[in-house]
Amino acid sequence: MPLNIIIGAQWGDEGKGRIVDLLSKQANIVARYNGGDNAGHTVNVAQQTFKLHLLPSGMIHPHTIGVIGNGVVINPVVLLSEMESLRAAGIFVNPKRLLISYAAHLITPAHLALDQAIENAKGKGKLGTTLRGIGPAYTDKVARSGLRLSDMLNVDTFAPKMVHHIETTNARLTKLYGAEPLDAYAVANEFVEYARKIVPYIQDVSLLLTDAINSGHSVLAEGAQGTLLDLNHGTYPFVTSSHPTAPGALVGLGLGVNCVDRVYGVVKAFQTRVGSGPFPTELDGDVALQLRGTGENPWDEYGTTTGRPRRVGWLDMVLLRYAHRINGLTELAITKLDVLSGIPTLKICTAYRSDKNTYTNLPFGITDLASFTPVYEEMPGWEENLWQARSWDDLPHQAQAYIRRIEDLSNVKVNLVSVGPERDQVIQLG
Ligand code: GDP
Ligand code: IMO
Ligand code: MG
């Protein structure tokens, strides 16, 4: 009865999309369970590059069924346009192939406007959100005033609900933030149109997935963002507003705890972060430039959703051990190992130091990392280009040692190593 969960073990953008694509070969159903179109998951297949924000990355395989769970927040404009762009690429998207939970919440123009207004008001202290309305949509959900997809099922009551939602948010936008109000009736009319298109996709995802798992189908849960951005367990307040961690998959899809088989932690071979917040192993200078790239290559470290340059640094094993604890990882998938080629000496952060103390676990979680300095271990790098490596033996011994050291320091086996952005540029160890 397998549910396999794929999570980001760092601050997002670990390469989850390409790992989901790989594992989708064996899956019947691929399900997004958290976040919204703040996610940007890249999958490269031959000459085609897909950048998915809301639809599960596994839908690129024609045999899969895609699911969007109750834990996701959905901007219908993005949803409909992503459906269209997949169709244009020859991928079937219809109510038989895509099922969306009735309990998923809507992102509206009011949420987008609030996200922008709140960030503006924070000035220098801004979170650096993706401005996709994620925080305000989840805020309404938690305040029990959000709009769910099930509201779209009844057009007569949906329109007045939308008007009420926009008008109440207008009061906040104008009075608290001095922002422009939205035209409630225009937005409501627009959303009634979206409802007509989306209603055929609305389902009880929990029921459907449970039945599928009980009849032996394999479900892959595709996490968005990463453990260190989790609302509860991340570097709060510099986090997203959902639960990207493995338990979030159960909450965000309506599944019981007994169906989980494997939990893959996707880990970039170094550390990146986009947006504000602590980053103990952050680098600048030449090595940072090499890790980030200049933006010429599609895999360079520039945000898939916002195009912002990502902050880069050395791999942080204190934080990876923490991610293992929070998620219960059964294995790791290491991505972008190829990017480390040509760096003479690699560093791995094995512990933190504060005053005279050394920590391998943090005393009070990872909220306040400012007072810690990383303790590094150095390892020799390698010159070889890894793009053609397809087996363990194809890797230079320094790269093998780097992988083994990650296993030793995290206490989790590495099952997959990705050595390039293309679908086949991967080494399976398990
Ligand atoms: P996600 O959000 O976790 O799915 O990751 P993103 O798609 O936002 O960012 C990962 C980037 O790295 C994308 O441009 C991928 O095509 C690229 N990528 C993934 N794995 C590898 C790899 O092993 N090597 C290289 N060079 N690029 C990779
Ligand atoms: P994927 O799924 C990297 C970051 C934002 C910001 C913080 C809060 O592609 O890995 P939000 O818009 O969610 O309120 O922003 O979270 N963030 C991501 N960083 N990858 C993502 O998704 C992210 N989604 C949100 O940059 O720091
Ligand atoms: Mg991404």
Describe this structure in words.
This protein has 430 residues and is an alpha/beta fold. It folds into two domains: 3-91 and 205-428, Adenylosuccinate Synthetase, subunit A, domain 3 (Adenylosuccinate Synthetase, Chain A, domain 3), CATH 3.90.170.10; 105-201, Adenylosuccinate Synthetase, subunit A, domain 2, CATH 1.10.300. Helices cover 31% and strands 22% of the residues. The strands form five sheets. Strands 9-7-5-2-10-1-11-15-20-21 form a ten-stranded mixed beta sheet, sandwiched between helices. Strands 14, 16, 17 and 19 form a four-stranded mixed beta sheet that branches. Strands 3-4 form a two-stranded antiparallel sheet. Helix 3 packs across helix 4 (134-142) and helix 5 (155-177) packs across helix 6 (184-198). It starts with a strand and ends with a strand. The mean pLDDT is 96. Bound molecules: guanosine-5'-diphosphate, 6-O-phosphoryl inosine monophosphate and magnesium ion.
Descriptive terms for the model:
430 residues; alpha/beta; Adenylosuccinate Synthetase, Chain A, domain 3; Adenylosuccinate Synthetase, subunit A, domain 2; 2 domains; four-stranded mixed β-sheet; 22% strand; binds guanosine-5'-diphosphate; binds 6-O-phosphoryl inosine monophosphate; binds magnesium ion
Unreliable spans: none
Q: Considering DSSP H and I runs of 4 or more, what fraction of the residues is helical? A: 25-40%
Kindly state the mean pLDDT as a whole number?
96
Radius of gyration: 22 Å
Largest sheet: 10 strands, mixed
Overall SS class: alpha/beta
CATH 4th-level superfamily of the largest domain: Adenylosuccinate Synthetase, subunit A, domain 3
Helix segment tally:
11
Bound molecules: guanosine-5'-diphosphate, 6-O-phosphoryl inosine monophosphate, magnesium ion
C-alpha termini separation: 20 Å
| Number of E strands | 21
**CATH architecture title of the largest domain:** Alpha-Beta Complex
Oligomer: single chain
Q: Report strand order across the widest sheet.
A: 9-7-5-2-10-1-11-15-20-21
Question: Could you please say which CATH topology of the largest domain applies here?
Answer: Adenylosuccinate Synthetase, Chain A, domain 3
Domain count, please report it: 2
